[in-house]
Input
Amino acid sequence: MVDSFFLATAIFSFLMAFSIGANDASNGLGTCYGSKVLKLKYLLILGAVAEFIGAAFCSDKSTATLTKAIIP
Output
């Protein structure tokens, strides 16, 4: 059975990562929405695609830097 402390930690970690990611996405896409360059529907699609590409293809270099250079 999963320990309740572990489960609470996993839930709070997910919520924190979600809120940080939402804040970063809003910083980048909020300007386009405020100036009415793109509609909200297109901004949400663009943001989802950009977040997926960044997480899927660019996260390995930052993880390698963190595990080898910063935390030996």
About this structure: Residues 25-72 form one domain. The mean pLDDT is 85.
